[in-house]
Design a protein that fits this description.
Rossmann fold, disordered N terminus, 2 domains, alpha/beta, about 35% helix, about 290 residues, nine-stranded mixed beta sheet
Length: about 290
């Protein structure tokens, strides 16, 4: 081979090597689509962003009574470019109406969920009735509501306060296909929820004189199998109605729990595993791998 030929060969080999390295790099790295969780919604979270109103502008529509629950309001992100969103039904406590958890429903919606916030048929309904009404609300949300095309019917959860929290636990036990449950200061005469198979975060108030943690939230938490994934968040110095007004700690932990298990979004796991922080008297969890 001549000197010119050898030089041309070295150049060709170098070019081939560069192309091979580039091609190998492209082939070996996951594509953007493969890396992206199809249910992931919104920008990368921070503790401060999840503690506050979320990145999604929201709108709402009202629902009259007579659908298996009382009147309701559905809150939903106005953005239609990111596909469907997970759905959550929210129920108030004894003697309360939907206004008690309006902030919570709006907060969840602003972080990328379609939320139906219900009043119950009667403000005196027991937890079992509230459980049925929560399930009815989810059925209405995905099958009948004007927001149904915005909801992914395979990714649903429930939340509620006091007897609505007891109803949340009962609804979750009755429907093991739920993706997440967030009972707030739950009250229920039933103490054993070993049938729950859904990731459940129980929020309690340290000084709750109506649903004391020792008689309610802690017993519920301890009865849920660890394999189901669970967390117990006790707010320092908080009473029974701490969840009925804007609460950054409930927002941080509750939204993160919903995003982690309804959206399968592991970006939020950092806020609940291992969890803890100021304003919290007790925090327990069964995080994956812990």
């Amino acid at each position: 081979m001549t000197l010119r030929g050898r030089k041309r060969g070295r150049i060709l080999a170098a070019v081939t090597l560069v192309l091979a390295m580039a091609g190998g790099g492209l082939a070996g790295a996951p594509s953007a689509g493969a890396q992206t969780n199809p249910f992931q919604r919104g920008p990368n979270p921070t503790a401060s962003s999840v503690s506050a109103t979320g990145p999604f502008a929201i709108s709402s529509t009202t629902v009259g009574s007579g659908n298996g629950f009382g009147s309701a309001t559905i809150y939903f992100p106005t953005d239609t470019s990111q596909g469907t969103f997970g759905g959550i039904a929210v129920a108030p406590g004894f003697t309360e109406t939907q206004s008690a958890l309006r902030w919570w429903a709006q907060r969840l919606a602003s972080h990328g969920f379609v939320v139906i916030n219900i009043s119950t048929n009667s403000t005196f309904d027991n937890p079992s009735s509230r459980a049925t009404q929560l399930q009815n609300a989810l059925n209405y949300l995905v099958n009948t509501s004007s927001a149904r095309t915005r909801v992914d019917r395979t990714r649903l959860g429930v939340s509620g306060h006091s007897m609505g929290g007891g109803g949340t636990l009962e609804a979750t036990r009755n429907n093991t296909a739920m993706q997440a449950a967030i009972p707030l200061m739950p009250w229920d005469q039933t103490k054993n929820f070993s049938g729950i198979r859904t990731p459940t975060m129980i929020v309690a108030g340290q000084n709750d004189g109506i649903a004391s943690p020792s008689s309610h939230a802690l017993q519920f938490y301890n009865s849920i199998p660890a394999a189901s994934e669970k967390a117990y968040l006790e707010l320092a110095g908080a009473g029974h109605n701490a969840s009925n007004s804007t609460n950054p700690t409930i927002s941080l932990f509750g939204v993160s729990w919903a995003k982690r298990y309804i959206d399968n979004d592991t970006r939020y796991e950092q806020f609940v595993c291992p969890g803890g922080g100021s304003g919290i008297s007790r925090y327990m969890q069964t995080c994956p791998g812990s």
